[in-house]
Amino acid sequence: HPLDRDPGGQGSIMDFVQQYLEKYYNLKKDSRLLVRTENNGLIAEKIQEMQRFLGLKVTGNPDPETLEMMHKPRCGVPDVWD
Amino acid sequence: FSTFPGSPKWKKHHLTYRIVNYTPDLPEDAVDAAIERALKVWEEVTPLTFSRMHEGEADIMITFAVGEHGDFFPFDGPGEILAHAFAPGPGISGDAHFDDDEKWTKDTSGTNLFLVATHELGHSLGLRHSDNPEALMYPLYNTLTDPNRFRLSQDDVAGIQSLYGPPTVSTDAPAVSTKPVPTRPGPPDMCDPALSFDAVSTLRGETLFFKGRYFWRKYLRASKPELYPISSFWPSIPSGIDAAYEVKSKDTVFIFKGQQFWAVRGNEVQAGYPRSIQTLGFPPTIRKIDAAFSDNDRKKTYFFLEDKYWRFDEKRQTMEPGFPKKIAEDFPGVHPRVDAVFEAFGFFYFFRGSSQLEFDPNAKKVTHILKSNNWLDC
Fold it and tell me: Complex ipTM, two decimals?
């Protein structure tokens, strides 16, 4: 499935979301395999956690407002810890 | 706010820091100044003090680096990650790293080093990210924050004080410092029965009670007054002020110390200040005033000095003729010397030491004698 060759498409967005959640919201790296499935519960849960933490509307989806916040410059220290 | 798992914190109150290298974006003295100011922000609200080392291992090692820089948390080029820091502890713990692929600036044209450093040093002292968007410890860089008017949020203060407590007189002299640890009085106790105030003023519906380096903000509807360092709102205003009053029609509070006064609107100190009190019409022999308030209905400002008072006409912007007059003549029952005064609900409240007099200007008499701190719910 050529998602990796789809810069700017849904695939690369989800890659970005996943990497962000791994870095800052303690999403385990081995859940990467699961993200390819739409509406993956773990990812949606983590997105919700991030949205709650950042004070965003909690949708569980990487909506435009959420993505905009995720692209803002920030501190590299994770927001939540294991 | 939150702290790291296990709430790691420094076991000592005097910490050392070292600026290991510099960014080419800024002159070295600008980096030094940004780091010093950032440390001062935390010093103001804790018992912590800091001294600089120029070589060897300091508690907090400050480094500019790009990409992979030896800690397994590589930087990512321009944008996104600006910096990171480690929770208190030995070795790399407590250290702060800044991504030198950012454009570090003194102002907000790039990434302001002071703001980021203050955040990172919060981590170095034990604070984790806050989910309060008003807090310095919120993880995202706020491009709208003005570094010149920066102040910690109550969330940040509560967070750091949960680890170290409020500022106290420090006794643990540093082993490596070349200068003595400064001793600073801690924040005043608002329910101290002997509490007196330097000045009291209204500000946009709140009442501010000044004492030393601090002031309490009292909202009429809020259950608890909030204590802040004066410098966290107005960095250029000195501590231990003499008097303050609000002219509501100008949305301005005037703050006095010695022969100078400042004008502030909200948390902005107005340009062109400080000015000499002589510009208000005081003779050069007057070295300071004790207290002041503005009667916003009658557009008159009263200045109290020892046993006399002066009246300033806010419409004409001149001191009224026939003054000074004796306080006792026009405010019978009021002490000849006043620490602070403000107007509320049509009454004038005069403070002297731990006492407060409620004066009814229509009846021209003192109607209640109260403790100075009764406004602080004590």
Answer: 0.83
